[in-house]
Structure formats: C-alpha cells, structure tokens
Amino acid sequence: VVEVSGSNFASVLQMFFQHALVLVVVVSAAPKASSPPKKYLVELCSEEARPSVEAELGRLGIEVHRHLRYLTRLPSLFVHDDEEPPVVEGICDVHAVRKTRTSLRDSASSWREEMMPAGKYWHKDRINQNYLPLDGDDSSLGDGHGATIFVFDTGLDATHPEFAAASSSSSSSSFQGGRRQVRNVASYVEGEDFEWWPEMGWGLSLKKKPSADLVENNDRHGHGSMTSSLAAGATLGVAPSANLYHFKVLDDTGWGDDEWSLLAFDRVAELVATGAVTGPTAISISYGDACDRGDVEFCRYSNPSALAVASLVRDLGVQVVIAAGNDDDDGCFYVPQASSDALSAGASDVDDFVATWSNVGPCVDVIAPGVDMPLALSSKAKGDWYEKVFDGGSYAVASGTSFAAPMTAGTLAVYATLVRETNVTNVTTVDAARVLLAVATHKAVQQTEMRSEANCPNEDRFLRTPASYEAGFLEHRMLPALGSSQGNPLAFLDAPFLEALCPVPPDRRHWPPPPKERIEHREVLRSRRRQHSRDLHRVFSPHESHFPRHLFTTFHLRAALIAMVCLFFGFLLFYLTQ
C-alpha cells in the first residue's frame, strides 16, 4: 500500500485545476468557425438585363452562383455572399433565400389492418366515392398513363416495390419501352449536386456523374419515397402508370431552401419548354414555411415562389400542387402554398374530419386524405418518426398535408388522361385541375370540435376520382357540377381558374412570428394532434425539435464538458484541503 499525503495530493489537484481553468479560457476565447456565406436571389427586371447585371456584380467582386433562365416571370440569379448585393441597374429586387421544411406530422397509429378497414387501402377506397362508409372498392377509371409527375422532395428509393418494375434498368430501351418511367433525375442538395439522365438527354448541366447507388436510392430521410408512392406508386398511388421523376430539394433532415426549390422549378420549365417532356405534366410539392412578409398580395402573387409557379402554370400549362401546411392557420401566409396559381391541398382523416393541424382558408383549394396514411418506406430512411412499419419495414404510416398533395397530383394525371379521351387536344394538367374542382364532392368533410366551423367554401371540396364502374363519370358528374348540359361540355376549361370562394384575410403585422412563438405554437398543435389521433403515442419529427437547431453546437458542448470536469475537481480539492 502506497500512502500519499493529503497535502501532496491537494497540490497536484490544485495545479491540474489551474491548468484546466487556463484551458477553459483558451477554448472560450478561440474564434468560432466561419459561417458559410448567405444566399440571395437577385430578381432581374428583364432577361435582357442579365449580362450587364452579371458583369456589374463581377466588378464588385460578387460571383454569380447559379441562374434561373426558364421561369419567364422570374428572370433571376443566385449569389452566395456575406453581404446582401446592392441593387444596381437591371436588378428589381433582392431576396434572402428562405429555409423550407417538409409538411410532415408525427408518426401515426398503425397496423396494416387499420389501413384497410374495408379490405382496400383506405385513402384510395375513399376518394372514388362521394360519402362514407367505405365500400371496399379502390378502382379507378384511369391510371395516369401518358402523364408525367415531378416530385420535389427528399429523394426517392427507386428500388422499392412500388417503383422497381419501372426503374429496374438504366438502359434507354428499358426506360422508353416500358409502360412508364421512374427515375431520380436530379439533386440540388449541397454535397450531392447532380443532374443525370444521359439516355434521355437530360444531363444538360452535369457537374458530376452520380454513383449508381445514388440514382437508385438517395432518400435517407424517407419523406420523398412516401409522397412519391401516393402520387404514382404501383399499389398505393392514384396514378400508378404515370411517369414519375424525382428532384431532390430537401436534405436528409427534411430541410431545404428556396434556391434548391427554384432550381428544380427552372429545370422542369426548361424540359417542358424545349420539348424534352411532353404530355400532361404536374409537380407535387410537400414543403414550405411562413411567408417572410405579412402582406397577402406578396405571399400570393409577388414572392419568388409565386412567380415561379405562375411561370409554369400560366406559360407552360404545368399545374403545381402544394401541401397546404400543418400550422392550423390560414394558408395564405405560407409559401409556396399561398401561390395564387398553385393547387393547395389540406388533409382529412378516415372519418372525413379535416385534420386539426391542417392549414385552411381561401388559399386552400381542396381537401384530400392525409391522416394515418400507408406509405412506401425507403430502405435508407433514418430516424424513428415513422416508428410504425409493416410488411417487413417496406411500408410505414405517417400524417400530414404532405400526403394530400401527391394524391391530388395523381388525380390530376388521371383526369388529364380522361379528358384527353374526349378528343380535346393539347390537354394540360391545368385543364385537369379545372375538372378536379368541378367534380369535387361537397358536404363530405367536416371540422372537429377543436376547430371553429369552416367559413370558406374552399374547404368543402373533397378530392374525387372516378371508379372503374363509372363509365360516364365526366358527363354525369361534371356537367351537373357546372350547371349546364348545353354546348361544349368542356367549354369551362377557358373559365377563370382557382378564384378564392371567400375573402382573403387582412395583412398581418409582425409576421412571421419569432422562433420562440412558433415553437410554442407547434407544442399546441402536438397536443391537438394527440387528441385527434386514434393512438396517443407520438414520436417527434427530427426537424421539429423542442429547441432551435442552433441551440447546442460542438463548441458549446466541449466548453461545457471542460467546465464540468473543472467543477468536479474543484469540489474534490476543496474537500481534501478541509
């Protein structure tokens, strides 16, 4: 046994404690890692101003990062710089690039039997009939063959059984010779940036060739494969024969920004404008966030996302469908879903109640299933927010207006193919959207006791697809809905489109709310969601944490750990010297 005197041991501890304090001071004084440059969207006054603006920005030492060239109503470019670029001649406005997030709620109740209460998946069973109860028939008069759906999201597991039959080979003949095409076309997420489909001539601005594994499955979050499966999955999708092309604009945590989204918009505009993509085309989007102003006119018509949507809808006939959002609020204050030309979809449950967290109001155009939805699960998905799984982990259940949007996009593909059979030429998904609204079921959905009664007729439109036994659906449902059986039955395709059926809300001051208020609001919504769900067990989504994402950094954790060690030895030193 070796004895050490208390005084010697105390001296050693005291010396260690002094050195540890010096270390804490050094770490605390160390400069933080430099933050990445900020992103800005520079809105040009005209396309002709692009060369002169780029030259002037270059003279100022500001490098142009990327261009938007095909969104006719939004000629613009992106710059990454520490300071906001000046408004020189030819620049009409400069916008700080916003963050966006998935329109996903927490995990839902869920076993496979609950998803098929009448023998078929409830979401498809529900939309091909007017009212409850479910009849056990999920058939459709159309399957979307010949239409194209672009999904902007977190990526796609193209090897999943819902898509694998259409994406089993990368050869040109296989993709073009089959009944439809499914492909991960591009990713604009930093670190994974690619555009790649040489056999279709789509690698137009290729930066790097992605690995085969990345093209097959780049969905490490899960949300993108889920939304894609409802739009055009083989068994879950409303339009199982539509072409499905995925653009990754959200990272593996479910977050993205306007730059990635607008780049995807611009690429779709290019593909349609140049004839690389033909036929009825729709875009499905299941993300968004608060508009950066409380000005409704700006949110609906003038913000960059609204201008991008208008470019596609009005100039190219590509209908954009967007999830209404999950903020239990007026959808007119959230973008891109507030865009006046977008088709915005709110969510309902199996009992036809509008979800208590679904955004509503004059900027929401249709209600579709979105609570406790059966979904394809990516084999690379990480996290536990989709905790409830079935079929060996290939499928999961979740809730959100995220899932109402792709169902609506799939329905557009179905109607576009049906209207085309009436010998009307050049049918677009914008035309199909008019049909969708004309035949929507009324007086089906209702509000829960936790919400006030619906005060806008927009919320009384429930998504409707024709069952296979309804051969005369368009004639029998559409004409009565239009109130006329005379003349051209499709003359209404030239009528005004997507006009709000109730007044838009007044502008809001102090909008958007500060982060603390938004976090508190989400807590209230979580409480409501637990009451609405048939299963009270919930798992928080990783991107909707109780705390701001920047609250704890590696720097703070290291400093706290060192401080705790010093405190421990300090108490020990004090004890030994008494």
List the helices and strands and how they pair.
Blueprint: H1 6-29, E1 38-44, H2 50-59, E2 64-68, E3 76-81, E4 91-96, E5 99-102, H3 112-115, H4 122-127, E6 148-153, H5 172-177, E7 182-187, E8 194-195, H6 212-216, H7 223-232, E9 243-248, E10 255-257, H8 258-273, E11 281-285, E12 287-290, H9 296-302, H10 304-316, E13 319-323, E14 334-335, E15 343-348, E16 366-369, E17 373-376, E18 389-390, E19 395-398, H11 401-420, H12 429-438, H13 473-482, H14 515-532, H15 554-576
Parallel strand pairs: 6-9, 6-11, 7-9, 11-13, 13-15, 15-16
Antiparallel strand pairs: 1-3, 1-4, 2-3, 5-10, 5-12, 7-8, 12-14, 17-19, 18-19
Helix pairs in contact: 1-15, 7-11, 8-10, 9-10, 11-12
- Order of strands across the main sheet: 8-7-9-6-11-13-15-16
Shape by Cα distribution: globular
Largest sheet: 8 strands, mixed
End-to-end gap: 24 Å
Report the count of strand segments: 19
Low-confidence stretches: 169-177, 533-554
Average of the residue pLDDT scores? 80
